[in-house]
Amino acid sequence: MVTDMYHPIAMFKGYYAQQVLTGLEAITLEALTPAANAIAHAVVQPRNMIYIFGNGGSYAIGKHFALSLKERFRGTKKSVRIRHGIDMLESQAHAVGSDYNSIFSEILEEEQATAEDLVVLLSGSGDSDNVVNAATYCIEHCIPHVSFSGFDGGKIAKISRMPYIAQIHDQQMCEDVIQALLHQVVEQAFQVCQNSNPAKFKEYRTTYLKQIEQALTRISPACLENISRDIKNAFVTGHNVFLIAPEGDGPGISAEHTAHNLNWDAVYQVENPPKRYIFSTPTHCDYSGIGNDRIADGIVSMQQLEKARRGDVLLLFAYDSNSMCVKNTRKYAKDKGLTIYTLCGKGQGEICYRTNDPLVSADVMQMTGHMIGRIVRNMLKGSLDYDCLITEDLAQRRLIAERIEGL
């Protein structure tokens, strides 16, 4: 059934996909080469460290990047040591006792980072003070660094020695471009370490972008509408929304990032927003089954769903929907009467991207999560049309600043 919302959502999905693809193609293979060479240089150094710093959504992008690095270089006898961000509890303690704007630069100082290390700085706005301060520290201490930011590049692009800018004036689209670019840079760095013909990476990049384009076409506007409406209704009626990835890895990070979007972006500029009861996986969530999947496939996810009740919504993120842990989780949720939507790379799901590449799955899952958050927000505002959907989404730091001013 085609509703009044179908056409604006279909137009929005097409616009979103085109903006992301254009943003990816705007940064050429040749432009990515210095970043790939920097990673390759850091990887071959003994006892090296690759530091990855970012906040909020950029922190999640950094997790995807770290995972990609570890997976790609596994078994190659290369040294890949990664320091991703800072532990949540540790950073909170530092923020209270000292200054949140120095959390990253202090890590570099405490661990005595050197010219053999590499610092990768991520900021959608380009203006996150703690990331900018880390760049300044790198410059002062001759530490190689690469920055990725959106919009016009922000403060960090003005001082970084190797800046990359996703020139889209939309926070979420910038994040999607940066995440996909970082996956490509890892592959290019791997090819550099293998002394491969540059044409091999060119072929990979072309295939990668084509897969993302094809996966985006498989997102049904009607399904986006149904998922968004059920999440919005769950918020309004006080029901739970679960975002679970039984397989972990990339889908797990995208699930957590989407939960972040639903908790923050989905209520941006919404007057008297409803409470959101959101449970995500794999981290920062309320369950006690950590590491117990050895007992039964998917038991951690099923334990998390023990708090669920009829009328709740489950957004299931899966690379392969036919994996036993995913099937067990879905059956458990069905028995409890949840409304279930599955986003998967391959198998069967309400949205199936039909790709065998786990990185493509993770990237497009996150793009889907961003779209859903945007649609939910406009549904909550009661004015869902194309113009509202494509209106620039501001960075979370600006939302936080507005709330602080109102205290």
Written overview of the protein:
By secondary structure, the protein is an alpha/beta fold. Helix content is 55%, strand content 12%. The chain has 2 domains: 23-215, 3-Layer(aba) Sandwich (Rossmann fold), CATH 3.40.50.10490; 218-405, Glucose-6-phosphate isomerase like protein, domain 1 (Rossmann fold, 3-Layer(aba) Sandwich). The chain has helices at residues 6-26, 29-44, 57-73, 88-97, 103-110, 129-140, 154-159, 171-193, 198-217, 221-237, 249-263, 299-304, 324-335, 358-381, 386-390, 396-405, and strands at 50-53, 82-84, 118-123, 145-150, 163-166, 240-244, 277-280, 313-320, 339-346, 351-352. The radius of gyration is 21 Å and the shape is globular. The N and C termini lie far apart (45 Å).
Mean of residue pLDDT values? 88
Distance between the termini: 45 Å
Approximately how much helix is present in the residues? 40-55%
Rg calc: 21 Å
The number of E-state strands comes to: 10
**Unreliable stretches covering 5 or more consecutive residues:** 283-289, 394-407
CATH architecture of the largest domain: 3-Layer(aba) Sandwich
Proportion of beta-strand residues: 5-15%
Question: Could you name the CATH homologous superfamily of the largest domain?
Answer: Glucose-6-phosphate isomerase like protein, domain 1
Number of helices: 16
What's the CATH class of the largest domain, please? Alpha Beta
What sort of overall outline do the alpha carbons produce when their principal axes are compared? globular
Structural class: alpha/beta
Number of domains: 2
Under CATH, the topology of the largest domain can be stated as: Rossmann fold
Biggest beta sheet summary: 5 strands, parallel
